[in-house]
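Appendix B, record 7
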Amino acid sequence: MPDPDEGLLGTGTEYVGARNAVESLLVLIWEEVLGRSGIGIHDNFFDLGGNSLKAMELSLLVRKKIDAK
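Structure tokens (predicted):
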């Protein structure tokens, strides 16, 4: 039988990968800020270890990377 936790980050959310370029960019930024990989589009930033300081860092990186395009 398959592992029931396969594809989960321990948050109870099933992994769903990025579906387009914008989601892919945001996933990469989240992974950088949170220091983890395998983040899906339905994951919750705060459930994955995010906090208010990391949210500020996230906001700055999103602006920087989107403005660079």
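Remarks on this record: Confidence is low (pLDDT under 50) at residues 1-7. The domain at 21-67 is CATH 1.10.1200.10 (Non-ribosomal Peptide Synthetase Peptidyl Carrier Protein; Chain A).
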